[in-house]
Amino acid sequence: MLDRFVNGDPTNDDANGTAWEHDLTGTQLRHGGDIKGLQDTLDYLGGMGIKGIYLAGSPMINFPWGADGFSPLDFTLLDPHFATIDAWRECIAEMHSRGMYVVLDNTMATLGDLIGFEGYLNVSAPLSFTEHNAMYKTSRQYHDFEFSNEMLPKCDYPRFYDDSGYEVVGNNTEYFVGCRDSDFDQYGDIAAFNIYPEVCLAVIIVGSDTNRRLVATANQQVRFSTGSLTRVEAICARKDRAFLLHSNCYA
Ligand SMILES: [Ca+2]
């Protein structure tokens, strides 16, 4: 977590100028770590023999308080709390010159918290095979993704296989009734990561949705955001929860 490492540039700690972003004594706000701090520390890291560094969380713009980088709002803008594009390039070039590798995060499965399900804005929405109506919580919206509450009457669902590897034939999707014409899955919320049955169910449902059809705009954004990471000269990117994305996104 870059924010929790070394603060090399205190001038970017309050980049948004709000009261809700930087607090060195807090656990939920930013501490101020940035790419300059990482670059300043390469002697120390290299001295320990470290050859690869994985920076968790998106380097793209997050909520002001989004210290972990898992609440990106726009995959076209770098988060100024971490660095400018020139600082990114300078640090990564320095790492490469030392024979070190860097892996950046493409957190496509965890956007910021701008959208909620109607009737469930402050609680977890239960699983719904016919999906929920989605709505923006405030006037703030994503520029690159859109949801829709319009139902497509018929959708192509994926093939399913049983434990022995044979394809399940017949109507194995009787609970599904159409699908929403949306960039997002609208089946409901995952309450917590450690509720395993719920997570498994959500994974099946969400995975089914993203596999059954390729949403053109979402695919375009995945490709663009990956391209954005290459512009800071990174040569390797991790896709957070890659199984949620259509395989064509990796082409
Ligand atoms: Ca800083």
Number of domains: 2
| Strand ordering within the main sheet | 1-4-9
What's the total count of β strands? 9
Q: Any low-confidence stretches, pLDDT <50, length ≥5?
A: 198-214
Largest sheet: number of strands, sense, barrel closure: 3 strands, parallel
The CATH topology label of the largest domain is TIM Barrel
Mean pLDDT: 79
The bound ligands are: calcium ion
Structural class: alpha/beta
Kindly estimate the percentage of residues that lie in beta strands according to DSSP.
5-15%
Approximate helicity band: 10-25%
Order of helices and strands: HHEEEHEEEEEHHE
List the defining traits of the structure above.
3-stranded parallel β-sheet, two-stranded antiparallel ribbon, globular, TIM Barrel, binds calcium ion, 5 helices, 251 residues, 2 domains, alpha/beta
Structure description:
This protein is α/β, with parallel strands linked by helices. The protein has 5 helices and 9 strands, in the order H-H-E-E-E-H-E-E-E-E-E-H-H-E. It has 2 domains: 2-109 and 218-243, TIM Barrel; 113-211, no CATH class. The longest helix has 17 residues, at 196-212. Helices cover 23% and strands 13% of the residues. The model is unreliable at 198-214 (pLDDT under 50). The chain is globular and about 60 Å long. Strands 1-4-9 form a 3-stranded parallel beta sheet, covered by helices on one side. Bound molecules: calcium ion. Calcium ion binds at residues 7, 9-10, 12-13, 32, 34.
SSE blueprint:
Elements lengths: L34 H6 L1 H6 L4 E3 L5 E3 L9 E7 L6 H13 L3 E6 L8 E3 L16 E3 L14 E2 L26 E2 L15 H17 L3 H16 L5 E3 L12
Parallel strand pairs: 1-4, 4-9
Antiparallel strand pairs: 2-3, 5-6, 7-8
The site of calcium ion has 7 residues, from loops.
